[in-house]
Amino acid sequence: MLKAQIGRSSSWLMAAPQPSSKGQKTTLFFGSAIAGGRTNQEAGRQQFGLAFSAVLGLHDLYSRLLLQAAAKKLAAQWARQHG
Fold first, then answer.
1. Which residues pair with 5 in a beta bridge?
2. pLDDT tens for residues 5-62?
3. Which of 30, 52, 56, 63 would bridge with 48, disulfide CB 3.0–4.6 Å?
4. Backbone angle region of 29, left / alpha / beta, with phi > 0 → left and psi within -120 to 50 → alpha
5. How is 4-72 classified by DSSP, letter by letter?
């Protein structure tokens, strides 16, 4: 597993072999996390500031679009090699 941490954010990547009916294949796992924030004493959990909350939705959308583009590219590569 590969992990990178910059400030309060970290990202990780892991590759795991998976058995397949057509031999061996590899599954990629990855993710990100944000640590820290202010503790809300009443709720007993951490909260983040307004700026963080404002860009979180954009980050989520960007991440999903990036993953979708990567999946399409990999599918096209696979189709060229095996089609």
1. 10
2. 777 778 888 999 988 888 888 888 888 877 766 666 666 666 777 777 777 788 788 8
3. 52
4. beta
5. EEETTEEEEEEEEEEEETTEEEEEEEEEEEE---EEETTTTEEE--HHHHHHHHHHHHHHHHHHHHHHH
Enumerate the domain spans of the chain.
1-35, 49-83
Task: Please report where in the chains the tokens 């939705």 appear, as a residue.
Answer: 57
Phi-psi label, residue 63: left if phi above 0, alpha if psi -120 to 50, beta otherwise:
alpha
Q: What's the half-sphere exposure (Cβ side, CA atoms, 13 Å) at 20?
A: 9
The pLDDT value recorded for residue 40 is 64
pTM tops 0.70, yes or no: no
Identity (one letter) of the amino acid at 73?
Answer: K
Residue 69 in tokens? 């583009």
**What residues contact 13, with CB distance under 8 A and at least 6 apart?**
1, 2, 3, 28, 29, 30
